[in-house]
Structure formats: structure tokens, C-alpha cells
């Protein structure tokens, strides 16, 4: 990989990231994958994600290779007196700023909306925070897991009531942060479209994205159902509360097979494959509503059948019968999957720090103007001198002065 010119539908846009951890960096990675030129400002110690997860001695965490790919990284100590002026100089070259400090912290640093607008009229600024830039919880600390809990997701990611005394299960990834980052990326593109399209108003906009609200917006009918019926949706474990059969079923070799047979034609094909056409004719299972009401009995019948077969055999049989199904993939199955490989969703990236790294591909696919992995997550301060020299026009003496004062690293 080399520092190649951006390609993709967002080529020509420049984004300044004042982010750390997951939400803001995830937002800017999405934009960078589609061609935007992202300049990431890091503190002298680097983004904490450089050290998250299993690490390679001297190189850090492999997640960084994907999390910060396609970005140019400059190390700036924002606590230094000259740092704010340096950031504003960068803002003058940018279309948008994405940040996820506590509400108000950017302004306290001297980077208020007014200051950013003065530096770059029409700048788009995306704020990502736990609860938003105003409201009663504005100043409360929050990470993604907190947003997931208050947004209703953690309540639903559990087994049905009474089945276990263990705490509600986490999704397994920082989904609240990622959803907020996705909304922020969408908002940035929408704001830039409103500003720059023919007939656009030329105005900058401020985006206010809250982790808690991002999660809540994904909760489907949970809130409307409560408003209309007064019912509180409960966790359903592996099942879908409104459709059956749709669950994970045990296999002979100790695995699990996911089966979604929740329409009448699919259910008929499933029962035929099982050698149990009588189940399709059974009044208890006629129509989705009846199958949902009798899901315990239905899942028992399907589980008895799946236990007689290995997971991979079931996967092939169900695919041949045109029944939606899959084994539960781990990283190993994902890495070897021919569909992911064919579409570039599992790709091998050469990284000087880690060697060959498997990374997830770029979403969305834009076949006629694809983005690409131009380079993996940079080492700390890798692009500092180049950005100061090529983007801001500073000479070697000026760069040395900033470094001597500890402003850049």
C-alpha cells in the first residue's frame, strides 16, 4: 500500500478529525474509505485504540490497521498555546470537522463554532457525544455501552425473562459507537450536499449526534408499541418475537444453525426437507401468527431434526432447499468465506507494523467509483511533517520550532 491519491465518490472532500476511541474515528473511516481526505489529529500518546485488544510488541493492536486506514495522522498537543492556531490553519483547508469530546470542550479549547466558521466560512461541524450537546444529561459521562443501555438495546440483548440471572448480554462489539459514527457520516454528507450542490445555500451546519439517541433510533417498534399498547417489549434470546421459525438450533457436532423459515412458502420447503410435511398442515403452525403463538413446540420439532445432522451438512441441505440458513460464523469462517472474498469484504492489506492484515472491505460498494484501502492505519505522527509542509506551507524552520515547543510530534 502507498499514499495513493484518493478514489471514490467522496474524492475532493477534506475532513478534519478531532476524535478518539471509536465513534468519531469510525465516522471518518467511512468517509475516507469512499475517498475523502481525512486528517486525524492525535495527542502525543496517540489514540487509545492503538492499544486496544491483543497487541504485537512494539506495534500495538492490529485493529488500528483498519480503524485508522486511509487517514493522514498528525500529532498535536492541543494543550499547547500555539496548537489552536495550528488547528484553525488546518480547518481553513477542510470541508468538515468531526469531533467527540465532551460537550463544550471544543469551545473551551478556543475552537468554538464561531472560531471554526471564521477560519473556514461554510464549515460543517459534527459533534458526537453521549447524550447530545444540550439537555439534562449533557454533561454526564458516557461510552457506547452506556448509550446502548439507555437507548434500550441492552435490555433486549438477553434471554427471555426468567431463563437466567446473568446480566444482559453485550452485543459483542462497540455497536453504539459505530451506529453514532454511521449517523454522523450520513449527516456530514447531507450537510455538504445542502451546502455545495447546484442551488445550494453555501451555509455550514452543525450536527449533533448522541450515542443514546443513535441506539434508540434503531429500536424498531419498541417505543411505538409502548405508546399505543402500554406493553414493554421483552428480550427473546435467539428468536424474533414477531416471526417463526427464526432461531438458532443445535447441531449434532455441537454447533448452531440459524434458520429463518418465517413465511409460508419457506416453512413448507423446510418441513418438506425435514420429512415432516405434517408440520406444515398442523393447525398450530398454519400461518405466521399461529407459529409465533406455538413457537416452543415448533422449535422443539426443528431442534430434534437439526440435532441429527452436523452444522455444515445442514447448511448445504438448507441452501439446496432454498431455506434461509447459515452456520454461526467465527473470524475463521469469515476469513475463508468465498462470498466475502469475491466481493472484497475480506481483503489482505500489507501493513509495515503487522505484516499481512485481514481487513473488512468497504461499505457501501460503489462498483463504478469504488473506494479502496490506500494505506493501513499510520504510525503515530507519520504524516505530521508532510501536512505541515504541503498543506500549510510551513518551512523546515517553522516545523522545527513547533516541534521544539512540543506543539507537534
TrEMBL record:
SUPFAM superfamilies according to UniProt: CoA-transferase family III (CaiB/BaiF)
Top-rank taxon, per record: Bacteria
Keyword flag Transferase: yes
Keyword flag Phosphoprotein: no
InterPro entries the UniProt entry points to: CoA-transferase_III_domain, CoA-Trfase_fam_III, CoA-Trfase_III_dom3_sf, CoA-Trfase_III_dom_1_sf
GO terms, molecular function: CoA-transferase activity
Keywords, comma-separated and alphabetical: Transferase
Name used for this protein in its record: CoA transferase
Amino acid at each position: 500500500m502507498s499514499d495513493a491519491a484518493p478514489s471514490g465518490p467522496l474524492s475532493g472532500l477534506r475532513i478534519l478529525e478531532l476524535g478518539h476511541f471509536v465513534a468519531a474515528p469510525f465516522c471518518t473511516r467511512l468517509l475516507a474509505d469512499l475517498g475523502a481526505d481525512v486528517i486525524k489529529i492525535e495527542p502525543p500518546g496517540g489514540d487509545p485504540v492503538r492499544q486496544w485488544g491483543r497487541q504485537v510488541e512494539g506495534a500495538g493492536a492490529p485493529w488500528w490497521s483498519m480503524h485508522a486506514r486511509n487517514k493522514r495522522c498528525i500529532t498535536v498537543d492541543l494543550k499547547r498555546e500555539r496548537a489552536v492556531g495550528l488547528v484553525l490553519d488546518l480547518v481553513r483547508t477542510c470541508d468538515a470537522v468531526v469531533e467527540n469530546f465532551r460537550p463544550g470542550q471544543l469551545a473551551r479549547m478556543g475552537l468554538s463554532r464561531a472560531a471554526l466558521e471564521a477560519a473556514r466560512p461554510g464549515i460543517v461541524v459534527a459533534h458526537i457525544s453521549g447524550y447530545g450537546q444540550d439537555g439534562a444529561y449533557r454533561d454526564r459521562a458516557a461510552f457506547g455501552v452506556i448509550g446502548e443501555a439507555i437507548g434500550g438495546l441492552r435490555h433486549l440483548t438477553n434471554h427471555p425473562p426468567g431463563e437466567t440471572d446473568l446480566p444482559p448480554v453485550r452485543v459483542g462489539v462497540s455497536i453504539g459507537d459505530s451506529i453514532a459514527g454511521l449517523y454522523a457520516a450520513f449527516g456530514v454528507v447531507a450537510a455538504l450536499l445542502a451546502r455545495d450542490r447546484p442551488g445550494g445555500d453555501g451555509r455550514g451546519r452543525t450536527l449533533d449526534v448522541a450515542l443514546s439517541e443513535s441506539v434508540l433510533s434503531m429500536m424498531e417498534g419498541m417505543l411505538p408499541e409502548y405508546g399505543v399498547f402500554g406493553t414493554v417489549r421483552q428480550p427473546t434470546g435467539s428468536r424474533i418475537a414477531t416471526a417463526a421459525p427464526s432461531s438458532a438450533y443445535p447441531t449434532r457436532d455441537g454447533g448452531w444453525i440459524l434458520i429463518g423459515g418465517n413465511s409460508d412458502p419457506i416453512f413448507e420447503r423446510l418441513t418438506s426437507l425435514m420429512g415432516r410435511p405434517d408440520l406444515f398442515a398442523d393447525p398450530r403452525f398454519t400461518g405466521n401468527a399461529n407459529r409465533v403463538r406455538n413457537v416452543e413446540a415448533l422449535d422443539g420439532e426443528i431442534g430434534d431434526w437439526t440435532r441429527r445432522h452436523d452444522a455444515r451438512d445442514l447448511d448445504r441441505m438448507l441452501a439446496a432447499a432454498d431455506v434461509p440458513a447459515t452456520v454461526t460464523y467465527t473470524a475463521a469462517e469469515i476469513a475463508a468465506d468465498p462470498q466475502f472474498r469475491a466481493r472484497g469484504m475480506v481483503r489482505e492489506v500489507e501493513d509495515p507494523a503487522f505484516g499481512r492484515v485481514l481487513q473488512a472491505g468497504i461499505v457501501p460498494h460503489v462498483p463504478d467509483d469504488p473506494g479502496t484501502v490506500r494505506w493501513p492505519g499510520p504510525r503515530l505522527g507519520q504524516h505530521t511533517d508532510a501536512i505541515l509542509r504541503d498543506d500549510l506551507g510551513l518551512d523546515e524552520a517553522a516545523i522545527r520550532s513547533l516541534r521544539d515547543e512540543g506543539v507537534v510530534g
